[in-house]
Amino acid sequence: MPPRDPLNVITEAFTSLLFGRIETTRSPVRTSTGQAQAVYLPTAAPGLGDSGVIIGREVYSGKGYIYDPFQLYGQQLPAPHWLVLGESGNGKSALEKTYVLRQLRFRDRQIVVLDAQGEDGVGEWNLIAEELGITPIRLDSMASDGNVRLNPLDPSITTTGQLALLRTIIEVALGRSLDERSGFALKVAHAHVNQNITDRQPILTDIVELLRHPRPESADAMNVALEDVRAWGLDVALVLDRLVDGDLRGMFDGPTTVGIDLDAPLIVFDLSHIDRNSIAMPILMAIVGVWLEHTWIRPDRKKRIFLVEEAWHIINSPSVAQLFQRLLKFGRRLGLSFVAVVHHLSDVVDGAAAKEAAAILKMASTRTIYAQKSDEARATGQVLGLPRWAVEIIPTLTPGMAVWDVNGNVQVVKHLVTEAERPLVFTDRAMTESSEVLLAGEALADDPYEAETEARVMSFEKRQGVG
């Protein structure tokens, strides 16, 4: 350090004596918005952007957590599909319902829910449907007040789609693939029905009748004896007969019910009357999925969400999974986000459809995992490629908290429910989740961020022009 000028030293001493000590002048501190947000994380912008619906807040930073597959698609998301994993009682059902309610605030959104849970004669989504003035489409073979029917041979479904759907129904029921002869007998019967019935909708009864009593021209076309044709189609006829005159009658054995409103913002298929462990459930989901593919998904500007509870019925069946793989690939071009809700990943990756399950999981760029036991968490983390810290924290998660993996962006998120949503989300009727989920609801109700979240919901909606 160079010696100071003696004159300056004397001048500073004299000035200090007269006026007091002069403080050292410092340059002003300058900082960027990013630096300020790093110091005080709750002021930082949401990690996935600020456009979409509010889910809650990030646990470690306190930032608001906003998610929308349509806003993120093509930028942070290669696919708009979403997998939700979690045992009953951890808030999974509350997340589904608030997500749908918040998406419905956008005018260009349409949502279909396959509601596979419920009690007291109605599905779990019945309360929300009533609040919105919507009548659920209840599929029930035992209904006495007029069944709703979906026709697998509905003319709105392409001929190729009809045949693929028929094969899927039969293969799911048989538990194996159709052999070549049975498949050919089905193809001939289906072609004959479509060519010769023009004055009404062809129905499954027509197919069953032709399989049981094949026409001579069918045998001639195959260059085989008539008895051989009948033998080839016998197993197929017996399976389809369950939907016509057996335990599954009343849902798919007639023309599609007139008056199903496919323009409603929310369409709920109530499947709660169907035994979720029976072969009927994957058959039903296959028919609903294909029917929606050809009647509901249109090349317009609407954004569509297809939420399926008990989705392991789809992913764990090779034939059904193949149908939905096509739907998911097709849907991405037309603004469809598929939401699969599953209790355990082991339900789908260890079954007969492991290859098909892996393909569907690969298309789900968003994964939400609620609390699981340690061994289940490790298996889930290995399949989904989660970081080690996330796998270790999954068993410690409390109700309402989940690990979110959005194409590699992994966060622990606390789901928040607003006061207006709570009566629709937490219901005593949902026995499969009631006692524990209500505890989760109480925990959310005590969250100090809830009022702020509700205010931010309104603020975001106002800025984005949501009605």
From TrEMBL:
Coiled coil: none annotated. InterPro entries: P-loop_NTPase, T4SS_component. It comes from the Bacteria. This is ATP/GTP-binding protein.
